[in-house]
Structure formats: structure tokens, C-alpha cells
Amino acid sequence: MSGFNALFYKEILRFWKVAFQTVLAPVISAMLYLMIFSHVLKGRVQVFPGVSYTDFLIPGLVMMSALQNAFANSSSSLIQSKITGNIIFILLSPLSYFQLFAAYMAAAMVRGLVVGLGILVVTLWFVDLRILHPFWLVTYTFLSTGIFAALGIIAGIWAEKFDQMAAFQNFIIMPLTFLSGVFYSIHSLPPFWLIASHLNPVFYMTDGFRYGFFGQSDVAPNISFLVVAGCFVAISAFTLLMLKRGYKLRY
Amino acid sequence: MTPALRVRGLRKKFRTTLALDGVSLDIGPGEFFGLLGPNGAGKTTLISVIAGLVRADEGEAQVMGQDVRQNYRDARRALGVVPQELVFDPFFTVRETLRLQSGYFGIRNNDAWIGEIMERLDLAQHAAKNMRALSGGMKRRVLVAQALVHKPPVIVLDEPTAGVDVGLRQALWEFIKDLNRQGHTILLTTHYLEEAESLCNRIAMMKAGRIVALDSTQNLLAGSSEHRACLQLEGGTPSQDISLSPSPEGGWEFSFHDYSELEQLLARLRQADIKVKELQLLEADLETVFKDIMNRS
């Protein structure tokens, strides 16, 4: 087993052993959102021509849950290891900073994917979703979960207590994901919020992901791709730099 | 020959505390080396620099000739550290913990060696238990096992017997002595000075971030300037100006640096009509040497 494989396997095992909490719970939450919002808004809101509100909502919920869970995996693993002290076993090992980065990142992306797929599979009972552009779907899934997995590493390293982690999650991650056009098309927003939404990178992730399903989006998929890929490169580079310097890990 | 551990001019400051103040030290291959000092002397910081957990402000550290910063991967492969804190990952069983730790070192199919370590540390029957279900002593054994999964040539034990019962302590030392006989270099910190005295061939004592004594255990014991005598007296209680203190074992104790002081004591006792029934000179032990050095430096 290479060092990367071992850490990746450990991170997968860690969430899989508590799959009720890490996989099933977010799938059920997403189903509740879907039932409530589609019941209330179905037939009242027209988003894209020829796409029902329920169909529109599903990719948004899949993306939002995948992102939140990718973030939750790397961030909670790191802060728990730091607070209980068992991060020392990783720090004493010859794992390179790139291996650390890749293993935490990949495992968090897997959790995001498993949750996203879980939601998709369950919703297939209710709706008949078609995927028009699988390439874009895979590209946006990979880049977006990667960004949130890396953000989770940053938060896990930065936070020194659970309170700080909760602040990061509730004041940054939640608003960014909830206000990314999961529940609405941003063109229905007043001008100020329309502009504000364009400043939220998560909007481009959700919008591009939705394009993969319907071939329709608020912004052209190429433009969204540039924004999302740019964020991926920048945040990954920042995370690697933190790990290389040993910020808050090696004093 | 390349030393197993080498540190040169290490300095480390944490905010206002100077934890290491120019520490230099070589530990040869196969040594059983003791690092002693009061709490806060800098022992754990020194170990942490060697392990790459703490980065020194100045100076360098090497494990088996590999710099802990430049060649950190080779340096860490050569080092096994048993940390002081009782830490564990509550998600895994004992066997999973040891397999994962082997994996971090890039070792596949390590089950034979893991089985042997568990056998030697009496962990085999607990292999399938979750770490949370183990007692403190058992968790300590797992920490030792984790440090050994990659058969490191250099093993660092940071107070491994703190809060551990006598049975485990003996089993642990037998195992570590075996490893030392097989050629592993051991660096040990402990507050149990009798352990250090019986196990270590060489000892360094630290105080306030500096090494204040460094010699073979034999030389340290022989060089102690303080002697002690135990006396049983008859015919009265010595007055306070005669510097005798009641001994915990009964009788009186007298500490001195020069034998002429003992002559003077005997003369004064004679003058006071106190008879010496029995006089026993006590060998210096490491505790006496330690206190002496700490007081002097």
C-alpha cells in the first residue's frame, strides 16, 4: 500500500463506518427539500422553458449536497484529528504534503459523489431526468467537489476549535451554497441580487452542472467552466502551500 | 560512523519561552540513551524537532544522516516515536490502526510483523477491539506498536511508562531491551530515574532548554560530588547546629561533599556525648546526581 492509498483508504473507512450520518442523512435532507419545495412551488414558478420546477430543483440539490458533504468530510476529519491529537500519526509518517493533499481531497470528493449519486438515484423514482451533456456534468462534478474538499482542508487546518469550524461552515459554506441558484433561476432576482449572485463562484458550479442535464443555463457553460476551473486551481494551490509550509500543523 | 541522531545548535522559541537554547548532541547507533530533566526543560521540544513536528528557529537535526527538513521522508522512515500523550483514532480497531500506520510508511503485507509486535506487547487478544474499548495501559501498548510497524532503526520513547502498571512496564522494557540488543538505537525520556539508571548507557540532562550534563551513566554516578551517610545514634538527640536530618528509614542522614566534613561531624557528636552505634555510607544513585546537577546549574 502506498502512503497515499493508506490515507485515502482510512479517510473512506472513516466516513463509511458512520454512513448513516455521513451519507444517508444528507440524502434524506435533500429529499425533504425536494418534497417541500416542489409541492409548494410546482406550477407556480417557470424557470427554464420546457423544464418543470421539480426537474430544475434536482440537479441543484444534488450539487449543493455533494459540495457540503465534500467540505464536511475533509474539514471534520482534520479538526477531529487535531483536537484528539491523533494527527500526530500522519505527521510522523513520511507522507509528502502532496500525498496528504491528494488523499484528503480524493476521499472528500468520493463522499460528495456518493451523497450526490444517492440523491440522484432516489429522485429517479419521482422524475424522468435526462442527461444531455455528460461531459459537462462530470467536469463540473469533479471540479466543484474538488474545490469544496480543498476548502474543507483549509478550514480543518485553520480552525483550532469546533466553534471556529462551525463559523466557517455556517457563515461561509452555507450561504455560498444556498444562494447559488439551487432553488431558483437568478434571472428571477432583483438587480442587486442578480449582480451579487454573479460574484458567488458556487453559482457557476450549480449552473454549469444543471447545463449538463438540460442543455440550458443562466450563463454559458464555457464561461462557468473558466470561473470554476480558475477557482479549483487557485484554491488547490493555496491548500498545497499551506500544507507545504506546515501552517498550524508543524510549529 | 554516521550517528543515529545528530542535533547541532538547536534553538526554538515559542512566543516568549525559549524552549531550546543551543542544543547539540550526537547519539551513536545502538546506544540506549536517556534524556532527563524537569518538566519544561525542553525534552519534548527536542524530540519534536527530531520528529519533524516542530521546526527549529536555528540549527539542524539528522536521523541516520538524513536532515529532518531537507530529507524529511527518509528521516521519518528511520524514526519511530512513541508520543507522550495517550492519543488514538476512535474510528478503528487495534489491527486496523496498525495496518493503516504501516500503510502510511508505504509498507504492504505487514501482517506477520504486526502479529509479532502484538504478541510481544500482549495485544493479540485485543486485535479486533475498537481503540475506545481499551484501557489506558492497552492504549499505551498500541502507541508503542504503532511506532514500531516500520522497524525503525531509531526509536524515541517520550515518557512511555507514565501511568503504566508494573507488569506492562517490565514487559515493555524487556521488549525495548531486545530491540536495543538487535541494534536499534533508543532515545528515552522518563521521570523514573531508576529506570533510566538501569537501562541507559548514556544520559543527557536538560534544564531550561540547555544540556547541563552529558556522560555515560557510570561516569555520572561516579562523579557525583555529594555523598550520604546514614547513622544510628545512642545517648541523646543531636542539637540543631549539627546538620543531621531524620532519615526516612529511621536514624539520621548526613549529606557531605568532602570526607573531612564527616570527620568533623563525628568529633562534634563525641563532644555532645552522642555515641555512633552504626554508620553506613550510601552509594550515589541517579536521583542524587540529578538533584545535585539541577541545583548546581
3D architecture notes:
The complex is a heterodimer of chains A (251) and B (297). Chain A is an all-alpha fold and 251 residues long. Chain A is 75% helix and 0% strand. In chain A, α1 (3-16) runs parallel beside α5 and α6 (134-158) runs parallel beside α10 (221-245). Chain B is an alpha/beta fold. Chain B has 2 domains: 5-221, Rossmann fold (3-Layer(aba) Sandwich); 224-284, Alpha-Beta Plaits, CATH 3.30.70. In chain B, strands 6-7-8-3-9-10 form a 6-stranded mixed sheet, sandwiched between helices. In chain B, strands 2-1-4-5 form a 4-stranded antiparallel sheet. The longest helix of chain B has 16 residues, at 166-181. Chain B is elongated. The two termini of chain B are 32 Å apart. The A-B interface holds A 1-3, 5-7, 9-10, 13-14, 17-18, 81, 84-86, 88-96, 246, 250-251 and B 14, 51-55, 72-74, 76-77, 79, 81, 83, 85, 87-92, 96, 100-108, 146.
Descriptive key words:
A: 251 residues, mainly alpha, 10 helices, 75% helix, B: alpha/beta, Rossmann fold, Alpha-Beta Plaits, four-stranded antiparallel sheet
Domains of chain A (count): 1
For the largest beta-sheet of chain B, the strand count, sense and barrel status come to: 6 strands, mixed
Content of β-strand of chain B = 25-35%
Helix content of chain B: 25-40%
Number of domains of chain B: 2
Assign an overall shape of chain B.
Answer: elongated
Mean pLDDT of chain B: 88
Strand content of chain A: under 5%
The strand order across the widest sheet of chain B is: 6-7-8-3-9-10
- The computed structural class of chain A is mainly alpha
| Number of separate helices of chain B | 10
The quaternary state of the protein chains shown equals heterodimer
What is the level 1 CATH name of the largest domain in chain B? Alpha Beta
Largest interface, C-beta closer than 8 angstroms, per-chain residues? A-B, 28 and 32 residues
Radius of gyration of chain A in whole Å, from Cα?
Answer: 18 Å
Shape of chain A: globular
H/E series of chain A = HHHHHHHHHH
Tally of DSSP β-strands of chain A = 0
